[in-house]
Amino acid sequence: MAMTEAPSKNRLVAIDLDESAFSNPSPDIDHERKVAIFDLLEENEFAVVDESKAAEGPFHLTLSIADNRLVFDIADHQERQCAVFGLSMSPFRRIVKDYFMICDSYFQAIKTATPSQIEAIDMGRRGLHNDGSEILQARLAGKIEVDFDTARRLFTLICVLHWRG
């Protein structure tokens, strides 16, 4: 008889974005949002670090921006709020701006550029995405533990929240 592994409690099972924060995303940005959420829900590692109480997942995350802060509103598996905190957006500003510029170049390039040009732009895009993910992991330290792939997908959602059209 084969044993199946129990699903991890240290994971996200629902993600909401405060859609009032961004207006009319382009089809490319909307696609990025949908893919990031789908991929996050398929596979992620997400644990609330809280010594004062046992925050047990799986978790529901709502991301928003308020007063120039990225707000993480986290509920537990019983929909009880177990953590709310904001991160200053200052460390993300430049990298998000650069990421949007290179994504715009990438989306234009896939229409007309050569494969080697597209690959070069994509390498730069992935590098910026990795940098943003590392910043996010560092800023979440002591609050939330995430693996690198989860941080990458969350960084995508941070970028989507900054979309101004």
Give a short overview.
This protein is of the alpha+beta class and 165 residues long.
Description:
The protein is of the alpha+beta class. Helix content is 48%, strand content 21%. It has one domain (12-161). The longest helix has 26 residues, at 115-140. The N and C termini lie far apart (55 Å).
Instruction: Please tell me the total number of domains.
Output: 1
Q: How much helical structure, as a percent, in the residues?
A: 40-55%
- How many helix segments? 4
Mean pLDDT over the full residue set: 86
Strand coverage percent: 15-25%
Q: How many β-strands, per DSSP?
A: 6
Any idea what the radius of gyration is?
17 Å
**Would you identify the regions where 5 or more consecutive residues have pLDDT less than 50?**
none
Which descriptors apply to this entry?
165 residues, elongated, 4 helices, 48% helix, alpha+beta
